[in-house]
Amino acid sequence: MFSGYLRIAPNCSACGLDFAEADPGDGPAVFVIFIVGFIVVPVAIILQAAGVPMWANLLVTSLLTVGLSLGLLRPFKATLVALQFRHGAREARLDDQ
User: Fold this and answer.
1) CA 72 to CA 59: how far, in whole Å?
2) Is the pLDDT of residue 72 over 80?
3) Radius of gyration for the chain, computed over Cα atoms and rounded to the nearest angstrom
4) I need a surface site. Which of 21, 43, 78, 94 has the fewest CB within 10 A?
């Protein structure tokens, strides 16, 4: 499905399905931002309340933010592309009736 880390391949290598209409846009990023935020913010607050030094809090939350974002973005993008094909969603055109 992917030709790079996040770049969608032109077609499926197994069945030849054309991915030209597959464009999830910013949807995956929005979902990932919300999920990562709900995880990282409480961790940062807990670390701050526990008296962890600010540099350690920043290091832990930065690594957690980057790791979760990179780990979740690809599966969410694949899920949204699959949902587009499942429900026949595509970009609207003026000639659509």
Assistant:
1) 20
2) yes
3) 18
4) 94
> Residue 40 sits in which domain range?
27-87
Task: Assess if residue 18 is contained within a domain.
Answer: no
Strands (E) located in the chain: none
Residue 8: CB atoms within 10 Å: 17
**pLDDT at res. 96:** 61
Taking the C-alpha atoms of residue 60 and residue 26, their distance in angstroms, rounded to an integer, is: 27
Residue 43 lies in a domain: yes
Q: For 7-59, write each residue's pLDDT tens digit.
A: 777 777 777 777 777 777 788 899 999 999 999 999 999 999 999 999 999 99
Is residue 17 a part of any domain in this protein? no
* Residue of 77 and 64 predicted with greater confidence: 64
Count of domains in the chain?
Answer: 1
Looking up tokens 């930065």, which residue turns up? 62
Q: For residue 69, is it within any domain?
A: yes
